Amino acid sequence: MAIPAADTAFNELIRFLASSPSTEEVVAYKPPDRLQTRMSELLDKNRRDQLTAEESIELDEFIRMNRFMSRLQAEAKHHM
User: Which of 33, 38, 34 is nearest to 59 (CA)?
Assistant: First the structure.
């Protein structure tokens, strides 16, 4: 079951960053449970070579957003 377009990792991250989070909030950020669950589902399907083309795009977005936030959090920790 794909996540509706309005609830993608990218949109969630944009909403979070648009809220002007503090450095501490950036460091503490974790995606909502529904997105974490979806990413786990996609990773499992990927391990079993069962992703559709749409799901592959969705997983790529999750991975890009995760890398972006990891880098942002590392930089934020450096400034704490």
Answer: 38
